[in-house]
Specification:
Blueprint: E1 12-20, H1 24-33, E2 37-38, E3 67-69, E4 76-78, H2 82-95, E5 107-111, E6 114-118, E7 123-134, E8 140-141, E9 146-148, E10 152-163, E11 171-173, E12 181-186, E13 197-206, H3 217-231, E14 238-248, E15 253-254, E16 260-262, H4 274-281
Parallel strand pairs: 1-2, 1-7, 5-8, 7-16
Antiparallel strand pairs: 3-4, 5-6, 6-7, 9-15, 10-13, 10-14, 11-12, 12-13
Helix pairs in contact: 1-2
């Protein structure tokens, strides 16, 4: 059947198509096709990833916009943050009941063509489906067999700027893979003035480099201090590492499955027809 239902007797969810994953691409794909989404951990976009100025999501309340970012080269123009679009899609899908388990699920496991969803204590649902569109999930088991894993990572090193954070720069760009983007953003720490900017350093690394001291958080800190003294030259500089995030750049390569279509990426475009949008939301 096209829709889904919950049976109090069997605790079963039944769908024709489902999406597994919670990336921006996964939510937009589910939104376009009006099919439910299942995941174990929200994959919220990097807060400093942006849409292009031309991207038009007016029907979601996000019309095209131009935001200028000051860099060590020419200023760049960006659109809305991808995180804002993700939040909007998550909210609308939730309104339509298309995120049935919300964020209650901590593990997903395939068993004889059904998904078993569990939280930290017990099984919470069984999901039967005819076809699945898979965008990746951190805590799923037995859905697909990996042929070759991904060895390339994108690494985010987050720093708190205790001294030297009052400046106009938004981004410093390097040609190297290591510390190629140094982002400055308004600090979200309590009792910190709004003109103070904290830092996020973005690097591309291999699996092997993750365990190499030359690519460690310590070396990132040294490199960041060097970059800031070169381009910003604050009177005093003090930065402290907050945490490091590591994310695989692509999904693994899987052996094919008749029941699962792997979609690591999809178009982010959206048909701007308000009549269809209102019908989709059930307003007309």
């Amino acid at each position: 059947m096209e829709g889904g239902f919950v049976s109090k007797e069997t605790k079963m969810l039944n769908y024709k198509e489902i999406v597994i994953g919670s990336s921006l691409e996964a939510l937009l794909f589910a939104f376009k096709r009006a099919i439910p989404v299942f995941f174990t951990e929200p994959q919220i976009p990097f807060k400093l990833d942006f849409l292009t100025p031309e991207d038009d999501y007016s029907l979601l309340g996000l019309p095209p916009c131009n935001i200028s970012k000051i860099t060590n080269k020419e200023p760049i123009l960006v659109g809305h943050s991808k995180q804002t679009l993700w939040d909007t899609l998550y909210f609308l899908l939730s309104l339509k009941g298309l995120i049935p388990l919300s964020s209650l699920c901590s593990t997903l496991r395939d068993s004889d063509g059904k998904l078993i969803a569990s939280n930290a204590y017990s099984k919470i649902a069984e999901i039967e489906y005819e076809h699945c569109y898979y965008f990746g999930d951190y805590n799923i088991q037995d859905l697909l067999e990996i042929e070759r894993d991904c060895d390339d990572y994108i690494v985010y090193d987050w720093f708190e700027c205790r001294k030297g954070g009052g400046h106009s720069f938004d981004l410093i760009i390097s040609e190297d893979r290591f510390c190629h983007s140094t982002w400055f953003y308004t600090s979200e720490r309590n009792r910190v003035p709004k003109f103070i900017k904290d830092i996020c350093i973005v690097s591309d690394m291999s699996r092997q480099e993750l365990f190499d001291f030359d690519f460690s958080e310590t070396m990132v800190k040294f490199n960041t201090r060097k970059i800031m003294k070169e381009h910003i030259n604050p009177d005093k500089l003090h930065i402290d590492l907050s945490f490091r995030e590591k994310k695989k750049k692509t999904l693994p390569t899987f052996y094919p499955s008749d029941k699962v279509t792997v979609l690591p990426e999809c178009s982010l475009s959206l048909d701007n027809k308000i009549e269809e949008f209102e019908i989709y939301l059930g307003f007309v």
